[in-house]
Each structure stands twice: as C-alpha cells, then as structure tokens.
Amino acid sequence: MPSALGEPPHARPQPPKRLGRDMRQKAQRKNKQRKTALVAGSGAALKLSPFFSLLFLLACWHWITARALISPILVPPPSAVFTALADALADGSLAKHSATTLEEMLYGLAIGLGIALALGYAIAKVPLLEYILSPIIVAFQSTPIVAYAPLLVIWFGQGPQSKVVTTAVIVFFPALMNMIVGIRGVSPRLRDMMRSLKASRWQTFRHLELPAALPVLLAGLKTSTTLAIIGAVVGEFVASGSGLGFLVTLARNQYDTPLVFVSVLTMTAIALSLYSLVTLLEWRLLAWQRRSAL
Amino acid sequence: MFTFIRIFALLLACGAPFAAAQTELQAERILLTFIPNVQFSPFYVGIDGGYFADAGFDVTLEHLQEPEVLDLVAVQQANFGIVSGEQVILARAQSRDVMYIFEWFQRYPVGLVYDAAAPIEEVADLSGLTIGIPGRFGASYSGFITLLQSGGLSEADVQLNEIGFNAPEAFCLGAVDAAVVYINNEPLQIRNLAAQNECGSVTDVAVASVASAVDLVSNGLIVNRALLDENPDAAALMVSALTQALRAVINNPAAAYLASLPYVENLPQTGAFITELKQIAAHQAEFLTTSPSRDAVAASRAALHQSLAEQFPPGESAQFQVLLNSVELWDAERLGFSELASWQAMGETLALMGFLDDAEQDLSAAFSNDFLPEREK
Questions:
Q1: Which element (helix H / strand E) includes B60?
Q2: Rounded to the nearest 10 degrees, how much is the dihedral formed by the CA atoms of A229, A234, A239, A240?
Q3: Å from B355 to nearest chain A CA?
Q4: Which of A154, A239, A254 sits opposite B90 (nearest CB)?
Q5: Whole-angstrom distance between the N-terminal and C-terminal Cα of chain B?
Q6: pLDDT digits over B317-343, tens only?
Q7: How far is the C-alpha of A172 from the C-alpha of A167, rounded, in Å?
Q8: Which residues of chain B approach chain A closer than 8 Å at the C-beta?
Q9: Each residue of A149-173: pLDDT tens digit?
Q10: What is the ipTM score, two decimals?
C-alpha cells in the first residue's frame, strides 16, 4: 500500500521486466559505441600526432625564417631546403650519396652485430670471459669514436672499409650487452625443463634461449640501427669521396646551407626507416608474446 | 690652500674619464681556422707585442672550421676572420657579404709531396699515379686541380684518394704515391719520419708547390659589410696592426716563436732549444736596429734555419721550422697586398671544378687593398 508521503524517491515505477532489459542493453550498446568511437578517435589522433608535431615544427621554422629572426645563412627557409632536395633528387646526387652511406651502414651492422651476438652468447655462457674481456670492451666503448676514427682511416684505408669498421664498432656494444642480458635472463626453471626433456644445446638455443632473449635482442638492435648512421657519417667526415657525411662537408665548403639540411634530414630519414623496419620485425617476431599475453 | 686642493681634485675628476676613454679597448674576436699553432704567431705577436692594443682592440682568438668562420663573420657575430680566398669567392656566390682586406699568405701554401727518388720531373709525370688528398673540397683540392691543369692534366689522369689530414701516414705507409699537403708543414714531418727510417723506402721527399705554377689567392683577413659601412676605420686599424705584427714575425721569428709558447700547447717551454732561441731573438733584435734590407733579413732566417737543423734533433725544432717555412709564404715587399690576377686564377679554377658559375661574380669586389697602410699599397 502506498504511504501518505508517497513513494520513496528510489522506488520509481519499474517498467515491465523485458522492456527494462532491452533498455539496459540499448544503453550499454550506446555506451560501448561511444567508448569505441572515443578510443578509435584518440587512436587516430595518436597515430597522426607525429605528423602534427612535424607540421608544427615546419610552421615554426617557416615563421622564424619568414620574419628573418635568424639569418638565412644560418637557417635557410623550408622552401629553400625543398628546392635543394628537389635538385639533389633530380641530379641523382642524393641517391648516390645515400646509397653509399646505407651500404656502409648495412655492412657495418652485419659485421658488428654478428661479432657482438656471437661474443655476447659466449660471455653469457662463460662468465670467465666477461672478466677477461670487459675491461677492453668497456674501454673501447667509452672512448668517443670520433677520437680514433682518423686512426681507423689510416689502418683500414680511406675507402668504404674504414666506414664499415667505424659502424661495426659503434653498433657492437649495445648488441653485445643486450645479448648477454637476454641470454642470462632466461628462466632457470625453463632451462631445467629443457634439460629434463633431454634437449640438445642447439634445441635449447633454438627453442628456449633465442625466443626468450628476442625482446631484449631486438631492443638492442633498435639502438644499434640508430647508432649505425653515426658510425658511417663519422668515418665519412674524416676522409671520403662519397656518402652523406661527405655531402655535408662539400655543401658546407660551398656555403650551400640548404643542401646541408637536405643531407642531415636524409640521414634522419634513413635512421628512422631502419628503426621502423626493426620495429616491424619485432612486431612479427614477437607475435607469439602478444598472443600469449592475451 | 683648500681652494687649490679643490681645483686640483676637480681637474683630476674631469681628466679621469678622458684618460679612461683613451685606454678603453674595443673587444674584437678574430676567428681563425685549424687549432692553436705556431703558424698563427702573427696574431700571438699582435696581442703580446701590443699591436692590437695600440690600434684600440682587445683581441680574443677563436678557432673554428673555415665555413663556420666565414658564416659567423657574414652574420656579424664576429667582425674579423681568417679564411682562404677561394672560400671568399664561393661564399660571396652564396650571398655572404664579406670582403677580403688583407692577404696574409702571399704564396699559396698547397703543394704535392712525393718521393725524391721517384721519376717525377714535371707535373705531366703525375699521370697514372695514386694521389692522396684531404678531400674533394677546400684549398687543397682547388690548388691541386690548378697544379694538374698547369701540366696539361686533369683529375681523370690520376687516381685521387681522399685520405683526410693524414698525408704523412698515408704516404709513408705506401697507400699513395704522392700527397697534396700544406708545404710549410707536412713535407717537414715526412722528412723527419724518413730520417728515422719510418717512411718505408723513402729517404727524402720533393715538393711541387702550386705557387710555383700559378699565383692563386690564399689565406687572408675578411670583414663583414656592416663593419665596412659603419666603421671602416676599424678595418684599417686592424689591418695596420696585423701588418705590423706580421712584419715583426718575419723580421724576428725566434721572438715570435717564444711569444707563441703560451698560446700553443705541447711545445717545449724550457731546455737548450728555448735558451738558444732566446739568444737568437736578442741578437736578431739587435740586428734589426741596423735597419737591414728585406733580403738581409731573409738571409738571416736562412742561416738560422740551417744552424738550428744542425744543432737540434728534428723533433725538437720541428715547430720552429714550420714557422720559418710559413714566414717564406708570408714575406713580400707589400704585406697584405692582393692582386686581381690571383683572384681571377682562383675563380677560373673553381669554375673549372664546377663549384662556381664563371660569369657569376665580379671578383674585384671580393677584395680591397684600400685598408692597407700607405707603405704597403
């Protein structure tokens, strides 16, 4: 029976049960759709954010140069850089020098990573090796490569070999350290399991150590690929007749600042492309990790 | 009495700012290339000998790469810099409004060093040889192309290898048959290595200088347009100070070397060599009081060159020998004077190398002798 004071506020008239469920489901669907749209919207915004930041940077650059806040001798306007880029693409010089640098980088990466991974595995397995080699490796790594790059040119010649060596040296350390950390980080329980399954060394490496160390190894590879261009360009700065480092030197000596910018931006593009490739590789190789996380 | 003291104090008070204004020096940066080295002794002597101060400047020296020197002067972050003439031509073609007002190196310092025993009699004999060069840019490259051209050769006739600034090592290790070098410095280093049997089979080297073939404009003092428009007297005063300092170095290199010691690291500060140089500097100062001719001063330098080489091991006197070699590239009847022909020769070389559109600029506008002291014009 209803009271004289009427129904309490929470006791609103209830719709029939079925109708209530439908409304709730509809509301939930709407809510979900709204959330999905929001997430999708923020995801798209997130994906586009690098382009926005680049656009913002370009706008700032244009604004500064258009108002002559900095002399065009020091910072040329974006339009001059785009013109220089178009010229360098048209005459083939940018492609030629980029190819040289890329080739030096790839050879250097292959050699540096090859040695680092093999040595890193050996060090991870034989701790005595770490005691013997670590002073040399750390001393070598802690010396700026630009200090001994001229010596590498004398030792390995003024051709691409010296640039390959500077690249190999600079990519070596991060790959080595990540290999050691990755292999040592493999769970002892899993190792015991492999032993109990009487797995051979190769099987343990192939089915346990490599997959387990892969995330760390790929992180090292990302660092190495971005460092590789530094190695190649440092070598080219010391002595070369081709490559993006040489193009910077040439452009500086011809007071062609837009071409310097083009060369530097190309170096950035190469480094970013290689980094993206490794990220893609990581995405593919670590798909199992994502699946198991789900 | 008090009145007298008051008047005296008033006079002092009035005079003090005037005296201060007279001694107040204008701070100026001079941008140099390379690193501190005895080859920059005219600037060290300019500071230590008070030549810059007498001209009203408190000079500080900074070392940068050549393109950076030129750009910083062009954008008025510094008023004065030292660069090679070829860089002035290239930079002016790219809208850098600078002017070259003092030719420091009267002879182009680049040349080719090769084994004295090699069958090279003339430039044409270089055909087919492997030549080391710091890089395909800068004064070395333009100088070498000019040298090849003087012998009827082109770059295609030789194998050119970029070796950076490692000519002694590359040459002595046999990586190249000959190397493009700065003739005041690297041939000396190679000779010293050869004397110590550290240069393969090479026992002595010969040098083919670019200057012996063609007169090309070389290193000198540049200023920016703003300074020339607003304060041309400052440019003239700087040139005058540099002329005096340079003449002082040419006349007494031993004293210049001693003045360079605080500025250049890794030079012996004491020992028999320095004691000997102090005596030589004192004797030379005495000799200069007799107002000797330029030839007599040159002869005194040649005698000094010989006597020091006999008395001291190459390692000890090497940097002083570099200074003496440099002096021979600086000395001229008219210090700082620039010839249009040397600019045109450089312009032609740059055009030949594809670095310059030959019809692009009026080279007579790139330099001026107007700021030189009357005696040097």
A1: strand B57-63
A2: 10
A3: 7
A4: A254
A5: 58
A6: 889 999 999 999 999 999 999 999 999
A7: 8
A8: 65-67, 70-71, 74-75, 87, 90-91, 93-96, 132, 134-138, 160-166, 169-170, 173, 175, 355
A9: 888 888 887 789 999 999 999 999 9
A10: 0.72
